[in-house]
Design a protein that fits this description.
13 strands; alpha+beta; globular; eight-stranded antiparallel sheet; 4 helices; 39% strand; five-stranded antiparallel sheet
């Protein structure tokens, strides 16, 4: 299995951005791991443990993930999540502000071989975003859907003048995921 795959599904960029515009400033929560970043790295939980709207940590040991009240305001994000025919765990919007960076790190147990994977769907991005996985730069465009093996080292720099926002979905591997990734 490759360490990253652009999936053969995509999403309507206009509708992704429309749901993004439904968010309020108070919906964004600073990421808890301040060691890993400089600048603005913040989160809006759409699915969290117990559906709690200010719970941003997707604890892999817990499985009681539910939709948050924020997701109920975002009909297209609901449609996007319904596309994934596998058990959904967390779903979050992750924003990396202009001029911000995430240091190189690893997220453990988030590779296909672990049975739990993470998909990224760029909602907002710009040409100044530099995303590296295992030392290789990967350009992800708005509306695309990507699998990336986050067991590997990765980092992001937003050198642009606008925010980078991704819809990040953690799922359990099942036959649907197999067919999508192995196609």
């Amino acid at each position: 299995m490759k360490s990253y795959i652009k999936l053969p599904i995509g999403f309507d960029v206009t509708k992704l951005k429309a749901d993004h515009s439904r968010l309020s400033t108070s919906d964004w929560i600073a990421h808890f791991n301040t060691y890993y970043y400089q600048g603005d790295w913040s989160v809006v939980p759409l699915r969290s443990i117990g559906g709690i709207s200010d719970h941003i940590y997707p604890d892999p040991a817990k499985t009681e993930f539910e939709d948050t009240a924020i997701l109920s305001r975002c009909p297209y994000y609901q449609e996007v999540l319904a596309t994934f025919k596998c058990p959904l765990l967390s779903a979050r919007l992750l924003r990396l502000g202009a001029g911000s960076s995430i240091r190189e790190h690893q997220d453990f147990n988030l590779g296909y071989e672990d049975g739990e994977i993470r998909f990224h769907i760029p909602v907002l991005t710009n040409p100044g975003v530099e995303f590296y996985l295992d030392g290789e730069r990967i350009a992800m465009n708005e509306g695309e859907c990507w699998y990336l093996n986050f067991n590997l080292h990765h980092k992001v720099q937003n050198n642009g003048n606008t925010d980078r926002v991704h819809l990040v979905i953690d799922c359990v591997v099942n036959e649907w995921v197999d067919s999508l990734l192995l196609a």
